[in-house]
Design goal:
Blueprint: E1 3-9, H1 21-24, H2 29-42, E2 45-51, H3 55-68, E3 71-75, H4 84-90, E4 97-101, E5 123-126, H5 131-146
Parallel strand pairs: 1-2, 1-3, 3-4, 4-5
Helix pairs in contact: 2-5, 3-4
Length: 147
């Protein structure tokens, strides 16, 4: 049975490719799905990519991952800087967690410099555009192999 990785995306990432392309680029979540699937296939893994604008849904998916996923790649978007609930849910997950940000959050507004999620993340990838998701998928494969 192939290993499954959850790739969770927070608020407004459904607008990737349309929203502020000067910051987030022109690629969409469908492009992310395609890139990550290629990387996951090479590592004999499956991915389940999901996006929600609702904090509670993200928490529910993290809890679901406890029984269904070996690892979580998460771009919590604005919830990065505000959600203790997402952090608490991640703290209940036993597998590796990788935090991804399309933009370089440390070159943006000061309120974006703090991440609750980083307190749980095994790795953080920021500022690589949507390629960061593929990098995270590669790293996740390595972490799971080492486990």
């Amino acid at each position: 049975m192939r290993t499954t990785i959850y790739i969770l995306n927070g608020p407004n990432l459904n607008l990737l490719g349309k929203r502020q392309p000067e910051i987030y680029g022109n690629e969409t979540l469908d492009d992310v799905q395609t890139q990550c699937q290629k990387t996951a296939n090479a590592a004999d893994m499956d991915i389940k990519l999901m996006q929600s604008n609702h904090e509670g849904q993200i928490v529910d998916w993290i809890q679901e991952a406890r029984d269904n996923a070996a690892g979580i790649i998460i771009n919590p978007a604005a919830l990065t800087h505000t959600s203790i609930a997402v952090l608490d849910a991640l703290n209940t997950f036993d597998g590796p967690v990788i935090e991804v940000h399309v933009s370089q959050i440390h070159k943006r507004e000061s309120f974006r410099h703090h991440s609750y999620v980083s307190m749980r993340a095994d790795a953080v990838i920021a500022g690589c555009g949507v390629q960061g998701y593929a990098l995270a998928t590669q790293r996740m494969a390595q972490l799971l192999t080492e486990k």
